[in-house]
Each structure stands twice: as C-alpha cells, then as structure tokens.
Amino acid sequence: xxxxxxxxxxxxxxxxxxxxxxxxxxxxxxxxxxxxxxxxxxxxxxxxxxxxxxxxxxxxxxxxxxxxxxxxxxxxxxxxxxxxxxxxxxxxxxxxxxxxxxxxxxxxxxxxxxxxxxxxxxxxxxxxxxxxxxxxxxxxxxxxxxxxxxxxxxxxx
Length: 157
Prior knowledge:
By secondary structure, the chain is of the alpha+beta class.
C-alpha cells in the first residue's frame, strides 16, 4: 500500500492504519511519504517571519499559516503507531531541510504577484531544493527535517 502526503489530513490515523493492516496480505508492505514533521510549520513560516521581523510587523497578510493541516509527526510517534497496529520492520526516514522554507516562500510570492496558483514546475523546484539541502547540510534527525516517509511490513505467516 503506497501513498503520498495525505496521512496528515486524516482525522484518525490510528483507525486508518488498523484498516490498512487488516487488508494488507501477510508479508505486504505499507509505505507513505511526504508527511510533515514537527519542524515543518516552523520551516514553512521561516522567511515570512524573518521579513515581518525586519519590517517590524507582528501580523498582516503574511502572518504564519499552518500549511500542514491536521497533524505534524515525530519519528517516535509514527513508529509507535505502526508497531501498535501490528506492523513490524518499521522504518521512518526524514527528507529535506530548508526546501520547504524556500518553496513555500516563493510560492506565496508567486500567488501574491500574479494572483494565480503556482505553476506545476514549482514541484520540480521544491525537489531540487530538497536534494541540494540534503547534500549540503548532511543528515539530521527525521524530526528536524521538512518531511517524513514511513514504511512497515506485515509479518509473513
């Protein structure tokens, strides 16, 4: 079972993971990527916060926005959720570091100045920033990264 950037939108992650475990065949793998970490909101609002500080504005149209919806995750909490519903061989990996700060900032600028949604190529820009950041900044704890990927295997019979 595979998914990208949706688990954080669900109101009950535990119930969803229980159902995925139930329908998965023995030996099957569940893998989700693109889930926001506890650091994601801080990174998303890094540049707008810096600009407000420089301009001496505490609020306004660029006030902090939670773009990650319902949940942000810690590595330990995700691991615990998967183990608690029965998965074994659980792996949690972080990705990106500053890419979300740059990409969200540029996307907000694009929308403000053009009045349109960001074009499709912004996703390529985000991916490139992610790769550059990973290369330049080395490895950090998944909790310090922009996003998290999780995988778990249902024990074979």
